[in-house]
Design goal:
The chain has 281 residues and is mainly alpha-helical. Helices cover 37% and strands 7% of the residues. It is globular, with a radius of gyration of 20 Å. The N and C termini lie far apart (44 Å).
Amino acid sequence: MQTNTPPRSSIRLTRRGRITLVATGAVLVGTAVAVPLLILGHGEGGRPATLVIPEGWRASQVYAAVDKSLALPAGSAKKSLAKVATRLPDDARGNPEGYLFPATYPLPWKTKPEKLLARMVDTANEKFNGAPIAAGAQRNAMNVYQAVTIASIVQAEAADASDMGKVARVVFNRLERGMPLQMDSTVNYALGRSTLRTTESDTRIDNPYNTYQRMGLPPTPIANPGEEAMRAAVNPPAGDWLYFVTVRPGDTRFTADYKEHQRNVAEFNTQRKSAGARTAG
């Protein structure tokens, strides 16, 4: 770790750069985004005719959506994974996280969960193994699976699509400097949650997805990224950024200077306190 990495008890990168721990020992509180099951139209027997998988959903969310859309008992889709594993890259070791491609899928009558999951994986392989992504990964000295892993972090961390490239560059810069990624999105994945309540003890958990304690990328993707996140992961803009924070909606600030980042975080905290006061009033 570089000496310019901020102390873990002070300020750190967080999911979407929105929540920052200041040296007070305070608990970080964020807002979870609930994503409903998205369906378009209805097929035979009143079942949905189409299933929409949003960008950034985790595999667990996809399984639940498949079970619900096909009117199957909970856990049915996950149990069918063994029939899909051969379609995954070797690096995935049977784990489809990152390869359940977000898109709109038709649901023909009597669709089986393994057929639907296989269609998602096949779509991911087609998208990811094409020339633009595969060549971009090679250009950045990584394989496609590593690119998908970075894209999943970008999908989770970027406040909006316009920030994705810079978030990807922060990931590359930290990896190249031997700095831990320190992404709350990976800690939340380790804890199996979507809400953003990250404490200091959370960052000390012994888990391969804890990028505060483990160097490098997490062992697998942490979500299923879309095409914009993938493009950002293989073709990030040039820049020396190491830190970012969304001070207010539409105002995400990236910097390589820790002191500047501290000032940005202080402004973020002021904005948050002010908003809290207005709400309380």
